[in-house]
Amino acid sequence: MISENSSTKEKYNMSAEVIDARSLVPFNYEQVIASVKKTGRIIISGDATSRGSFLNELARNITELAFDYLDAPPVVVGSRNWITPAYELEEAFFPQPDWFIDAIHEKIVPLKGHISNQNFSDSEQIRRAKLGV
């Protein structure tokens, strides 16, 4: 299923095509590759943690299958690498809408006037890997 997101278009003059995978096995790479051909970019997200998840498998396969069409590496936005907390802390654990804007700003294209709340920089990714979080 593909849908267009217009809230980012209004604020940043940018739109996003959202593809709901529906299933991981089998997975329809053709639809994703067609989208990458149009945009040159992709963010892969789910409620799984990014480390050791199928999200990274999708990113690897998309990189291999659509390498010639990518203008930036695939970006994975997953849950925090912790044990799933109680529901009161879900907003700090599961991906939130502003996480995507921050990931776009830091990993894909700088957004004029945007100040990130979440750190998706390469140095933060390395730091978290060292800490195991």
Summarize the structure.
The chain has helices at 7-12, 29-39, 54-65, 90-93, 97-108, 122-131; strands spanning 2-5, 16-19, 43-49, 75-79. With 133 residues, it is α+β, with helices and mostly antiparallel strands. Strand 3, helix 3 and strand 4 (75-79) form a beta-alpha-beta unit.
Task: Describe what you observe in this structure.
The chain is 41% helix and 15% strand. By secondary structure, the protein is α+β, with helices and mostly antiparallel strands. It has one domain (2-100): Rossmann fold (3-Layer(aba) Sandwich). The strands form 2 sheets. The chain has a two-stranded antiparallel sheet with strand order 1-2. Strands 3-4 form a two-stranded parallel ribbon. The longest helix has 12 residues, at 54-65. The model has no long low-confidence stretch (mean pLDDT 88).
The rounded distance between the terminal residues' Cα atoms is 33 Å
Proportion of helical residues: 40-55%
Structural class: alpha+beta
- Our count of helices gives 6
List the strand order in the largest sheet.
Answer: 1-2
The CATH architecture: 3-Layer(aba) Sandwich
- Give the overall shape, derived from the CA principal axes: globular
Averaged pLDDT: 88
Return the CATH class: Alpha Beta
Give the tally of β-strands. Answer: 4
CATH topology category name: Rossmann fold
Please give the largest β-sheet. Answer: 2 strands, antiparallel
Number of self-contained structural domains:
1
**Radius of gyration, in angstroms, nearest whole number:** 15 Å
- The percentage of residues in β strands lies in 15-25%
H/E topology pattern: EHEHEHEHHH
Low-confidence stretches: none
